[in-house]
Design a protein that fits this description.
Layout lengths: L1 H24 L4 H47 L6 H42 L31 H5 L5 H12 L7 H12 L2 H10 L9 H9 L7 H33 L11 H4 L1 H27 L6 H15 L6 H8 L2 E2 L2 E2 H17 L6 H6 L2 H42 L7 E2 L6 E6 L12 E5 L5 E5 L6 H15 L9 E4 L3 E5 L12 H16 L5 E6 L7 H17 L3 E6 L12 E11 L2 E10 L7 H7 L5
Parallel strand pairs: 3-7, 6-10, 6-11, 8-9, 9-10
Antiparallel strand pairs: 1-2, 4-5, 4-7, 11-12
Helix pairs in contact: 1-3, 2-3, 3-7, 5-16, 6-16, 7-12, 8-16, 9-11, 9-16, 11-16, 12-14, 12-16, 14-16
Length: 641
């Protein structure tokens, strides 16, 4: 185990050195340096704490050894006062308390360092495969999520998400999976702008729940809060209190006699502890009757008390995290209207939502206490769980309707915080202009946000009702698919309220439909071509919702012969344009270039062969590609063609 931990530590240290080197060599920006400086400062503080922790551990061991050494002359030989042994034991207790504080502080700093390292990974392009990838949100039937790498390893979600609760992940995923309305985008943009510079706030937000990332389950909490409320009559509460008050004294009075009776069965000579008073001899019988009454009363209430705890009984830690996040939001002062609304939603009758959540968390901690094997018998006598169920029922009646609102606030704030980190780490990105106009998309110096900064090549794009189609030709690997993904991914970002990877961008509200990554299925009996036909049909169906669909078709119908491909592609594209859609189509088949005549533009990416190798500059050019180097490349690698 120690060797495994040591190996993990070596890997972590190696990764940290690679991060620092990447920040200095590949991306020497103010942003990466800020992260590097924060990590270094935390490393210094952590090193000091680790040294202190080691010293305290040795002192604790010394105290124990001293107590053992002093115990012999004190208790075995009687030459020392026994209080001398208490001195090192008292010192040990004081050191243990101090050590616990040092460990908590060290854990907190570790979480802060992890947050800054995660930011440095994003800035340096070393983020793929790290952090939550949102794979649980990936729906194969979604019109663009799989094609544009919205969820999964190396996805847009993995790049953006710094959420530490399921509510935050759900909210961010929802924003990426469905475009916001025209009225929602400006408030989100303003909120992101305000949060962008607040790095310390984002760090604290991420640190609160890092140890139990995504622990809060919105579905379970909301379902619990919406469940039918239990009603308990005053007499039921009174009976429960009376039974609890009577049961414990009767138990304590009965205990000596019961224990002595058991002991006499084992050893007949054991003295009896049964009281002489005849009335006191009835105590065990009274206790038995009260215990049976408690059992029956608990069964009677069970149908109403059990649902109070179902789905919530083990959520104390989650609720503590939830309260911490709510506390953090409530402590801020915001200018952006959306952030102000989130802040104000946590106030009710002068009381903060976090205080109410903590009350429920404390009740659930009391439920956990009843599971302790030593306290459990007394908890049963006191009807502990029943009384807590009464209080939980009152809490749910008073606060249940607000639970969903609180989770919504947490989710929205975490989603905004995630996008704010993206904005802060990419100062060259801009907030797009989203206008309620005829369908259009226009961007200058646009790149793909998932690519490393050093590997990006910027291109422009323009689509409108006048030029609704770009037909993109060129060879494989020349950049056609990446260009389509750049447009699609930046559109998703824009309609989520995020800045985009471009120098400028303007667009109308658009429904995105993409066919860039087609997968056949042997199990389902679906061929590649049939899967593509189904995907294209889905995009056509989107256009039936009205004008405003952005279609992205990569190598349309390339799974069939050229004759059928041309007829089918032209018919589909004409129908999409007739429905008011705008979009792009890539192709190897230059015969399809004529489709763009009169309704769009032909653009292309070129390739060249240098010393037998195909090279690309990934720059978009006007017109149809004029040359093909496929045969030359085949010959260059030795194929006889």
């Amino acid at each position: 185990m120690e060797s495994f931990c040591g190996l993990a530590a070596v890997r972590d240290n190696r990764h940290r050195m690679e991060l620092t080197a990447a920040a200095q060599a590949a991306n020497p920006t103010d942003i990466s340096q800020r992260y590097v400086e924060r990590v270094r400062a935390l490393n210094v503080e952590l090193a000091a704490l680790n040294s202190r922790s080691t010293l305290i551990s040795r002192l604790r061991l010394f105290c124990v050894a001293t107590a053992v050494i002093l115990a012999f002359p004190a208790f075995v030989y009687g030459v020392l006062n026994g209080w001398w042994v208490a001195l090192p034991l008292a010192a040990f207790i004081a050191l243990a308390i101090t050590h616990e504080r040092v460990i908590r502080r060290s854990t907190h700093l570790e979480l802060r360092r992890k947050f800054n390292e995660r930011g440095l990974e994003r800035v340096t392009g070393m983020w793929m495969g790290r952090g939550s990838d949102g794979a649980r949100f990936l729906d194969p039937s979604h019109p663009y999520a799989a094609d544009l790498d919205i969820f999964g390893t190396g996805s847009l979600f993995q790049l953006l998400s710094s959420a530490r609760t399921a509510a935050g992940e759900d909210k961010l995923a929802g924003w990426l999976a469905a475009p916001a309305s025209i009225g929602e985008i400006p408030p989100r943009q303003n909120a992101v702008r305000e949060l962008t510079a607040q790095l310390d706030l984002r760090e604290e937000l991420a640190t609160i729940a890092e140890e139990t990332a995504a622990a809060i389950s919105p579905e379970e909490l909301v379902t619990w809060s919406r469940a039918p409320k239990a009603e308990f009559a005053p007499w039921e509460r009174l009976v429960a209190s009376a039974l609890s008050i009577v049961a414990l004294p009767l138990f304590l009075l009965s205990l000596p006699g019961v224990l002595s009776s058991i002991a006499r069965v084992i050893e007949p000579r054991f003295p009896t502890l049964t009281p002489d008073n005849p009335l006191l001899r009835l105590v065990p019988m009274l206790f038995l009757l009260i215990a049976l009454a408690e059992l029956g009363f608990t069964k009677y209430l069970g149908r109403r008390t059990a649902p109070q705890m179902e789905g919530i009984s083990r959520a104390a830690d989650d609720l503590t995290i939830m309260a911490g996040v709510l506390d953090l939001i409530s402590a801020q002062t915001f200018d952006a209207p959306l952030l102000q609304a989130l802040h104000d939603s946590l106030q009710h009758d002068g009381e903060n939502a976090s205080a109410r959540v903590r009350r429920l968390a404390r009740l659930l901690e009391l439920v956990d206490a009843a599971r302790n094997q030593f306290f459990a018998p007394f908890a049963a006598l006191l009807l502990w769980r029943t009384h807590i169920s009464f209080r939980v029922a009152r809490w749910r009646a008073a606060n249940g309707p607000d639970v969903e609102k609180w989770l919504e606030t947490i989710g929205t704030f975490e989603a905004l915080s995630s996008i704010s980190s993206f904005a802060w780490e990419n100062p060259g990105h801009v907030f797009p202009t989203v206008e309620e106009t005829a369908p259009h998309f226009s961007a200058t110096r646009m790149t793909h946000p998932l690519m490393k900064q050093t590997e990006r090549v910027a291109n422009d794009a323009s689509l409108s009702t006048k030029v609704p189609l770009l037909l993109v030709s060129g060879s494989n690997m020349s950049g056609k698919s990446t260009y389509l993904r750049s447009i699609g991914t930046n559109t998703v970002l824009a309609l989520a309220g995020s800045p985009v990877a471009a120098s400028s961008m303007s667009l109308s509200p658009l429904r995105v439909g993409a066919s860039l990554r087609i997968a056949d299925s042997l199990q389902a009996g679906v061929s590649h071509f049939y899967a593509e036909v189904q995907k294209v049909k889905q995009i056509v169906d989107l256009t039936r919702q009205g004008p405003g669909t952005l279609f992205l078709l990569d190598e349309i119908f390339h799974g069939t012969n050229s004759h059928d491909r041309r007829i089918g592609a032209e018919a589909v594209i004409r129908s999409l344009l007739a429905a008011g859609a705008i979009g792009l189509v890539t192709t190897h088949d230059l015969a399809l270039a004529s489709i763009a005549e009169g309704s769009g533009r032909n653009v292309h990416f070129e390739d060249t062969i240098v010393d037998g190798r195909m090279t690309f500059d990934f720059k978009l050019r006007e017109g149809v590609v004029e040359k093909s180097n496929a045969l030359a490349l085949m010959r260059a690698v030795g194929l006889d063609v």
